[in-house]
Amino acid sequence: MYEIGLWEMAVIGEVALLVVGPEQLPRLARTAGLWVGRARRFVSSVKADIDRELAADELKKSLAKQAESESLYEILEDTKRSISAPLDDKPSTDEAKPAAPVADKSHDSHG
Fold this sequence. Notes:
Blueprint: H1 6-20, H2 25-68, H3 72-89
């Protein structure tokens, strides 16, 4: 917000003392302090509301983006299908048994 230094406060205090007078100055300072406190609380409340709205908006965007993408369930099902597909293409265990080895007699010297 606004930065007010020591010298600015001193000048404001002197002007207030000259304008209002020494009798009314304490009451004026108290009232000004109350108003400044209320203004700060109001500004802080507005900032908190804006932050909550931004967080809610981010959450909505994140949920919308997540809804557009594939769900985890669909990804898992696709992965299961892609893993089981090569297994389904393989022959069954009866067909997968290798035939008995046949001896190659062309190289046999005893024959």
